Amino acid sequence: MKPCTSELTTRLRTAENVVAFSGAGISSESGVPTFRGTDGIWSKFKPEELANFDAFMSNPELVWEWYRHRKEIISRVQPNAAHRALARMEQIYRRFAVITQNIDNLHQRAGSRTVHELHGNIERNYCTGCGKYYSNDFILAQERAPRCPSCNSLIRPDVVWFGELLPEDAWKASVAAAETAQVFFVIGTSAVVYPAASLPSIAKRSGAYVVEINIETTEFSMKADEVLLGKAGEVLPALISQSLSHTEHERAQRYGK
Ligand SMILES: [Zn+2]
């Protein structure tokens, strides 16, 4: 990776409030597949045909079979250097948040604590009748589509399906984070699916320095203040060592982290 600009270095050293907005690209560096097209028996289905409430209600066994398959794959992958770098930044900055479109829980597994999940989390499950949450262990122990022991309704994965609104709390927290960020990273996402795609623009309008990290340029690149091309798992650790390592100890002292 070529060194970042001195502008970014200065901003990273002086910022107190930094936000990272992540998408599928950061997960693919861990080996999380996109679940589109090439995946054995599931290649017959488009995700849109399975990841929606009507499909679930009309064929819960099929949709649950697909989610069990996805849960198993995701449970085997590990957070990568990009996830770990963001968890480290949370220790460095006074305020730091990850906003993610990913459902794989990898940010949390890497140690990030403030994570706004726009599309839910595949490791959580809840009852469509009474709303009670159920663990993955409970789900994986069932042979058929799991039902709630309290009210006998179907249990579903806590993910946002096609046609569903984003969770309001996560969305409001994400907008607030974008509005107050001094540096806003866009990582591994082409930022084209609305409403999530509006977050980088909200950040920019609110005065953030917007930095895109992707393996290739995207439609958003023209609007970014800076574009760093490369794998996030290489770019982010390099940014920390170029811009932040010597300030890390001092900041940790200042913020008592
Ligand atoms: Zn229930």
Short recap of the structure:
By secondary structure, the chain is α/β, with parallel strands linked by helices. It has helices at residues 6-14, 24-28, 47-50, 53-58, 60-76, 81-92, 106-110, 136-140, 168-180, 198-205, 232-255, and strands spanning 17-22, 95-100, 115-117, 120-127, 133-134, 155-159, 183-187, 209-214, 226-229. The chain has a 6-stranded parallel beta sheet with strand order 3-2-1-7-8-9, with helices on both faces.
The unreliable regions are: none
Shape: elongated
Major beta-sheet overview: 6 strands, parallel
Task: Calculate the terminal CA-CA distance, rounded to whole Å.
Answer: 30 Å
Number of strand segments = 9
Structural class by SSE content: alpha/beta
Query: What is the arithmetic mean of pLDDT?
Result: 92
SSE sequence, one letter per element: HEHHHHHEHEEEHEHEHEEH
Helix amount, in percent? 40-55%
Biggest sheet strand line-up: 3-2-1-7-8-9
Q: How much strand?
A: 15-25%
Gyration radius from CA atoms, angstroms: 19 Å
- The number of distinct helices, counting runs of at least 4 residues, comes to 11
Distinct small molecules bound, one entry per kind: zinc ion
List the helices and strands and how they pair.
Blueprint (H helix, E strand, L loop, with lengths): L5 H9 L2 E6 L1 H5 L18 H4 L2 H6 L1 H17 L4 H12 L2 E6 L5 H5 L4 E3 L2 E8 L5 E2 L1 H5 L14 E5 L8 H13 L2 E5 L10 H8 L3 E6 L11 E4 L2 H24 L2
Helix pairs in contact: 1-11, 6-11, 9-10
The structure holds zinc ion (ZN).
Zinc ion (ZN) binds next to loops.
